[in-house]
Amino acid sequence: MDEKFEILDIEEGDVVIDFHNATFKLSKLSSAMKDQILSNGLRELNNRLNHQGGGELPAYKNEYWIDKGVNSEVLKPGKNWQKGKCRIKVTLEFCPDEPEVEEIPEIKEPESPLDDLRRQINDLSS
Asked: Basic and acidic residues bias: where (predicted)?
């Protein structure tokens, strides 16, 4: 089965998620996930990166990691170094068990010019 996960977008309004034992608004769940990642997750990630000999991520305020971006450079295969900003995005994705069926509007055929004549004939013969 080819699962097609789509990002749940906070901008769509108050999306609510039920995990059978707990129900959350997406906005609150996403905010809690960001807070957790930034408070404990980055510290743990830095510990792991240090342990692997890779150094540490730069220390910035949380708002930079989430919104403004952190100064960085990226090297893509076959390209030169490119300066810019990196930021962390926390997303939750959803894949429905059954695809949503789109309602197809009922298409009315245009009236024929002969419909009026048919109605008049029917009215006369009744």
From this structure: 105-126
21-57 confidence digits (pLDDT tens): 889 888 888 888 888 887 777 778 888 888 888 787 8
Residue 98's φ and ψ, nearest 5 degrees, are -125, 130
Q: Apex CA 76: angle with CA 90 and CA 42, to 5°? A: 30
Q: Which residue has the higher pLDDT, 13 or 78?
A: 78
86 CB burial (10 A radius; 0-12, 13-18, 19+) = middle
| pTM greater than 0.85 (yes/no) | no
CB atoms within 10 A of CB 29: 20
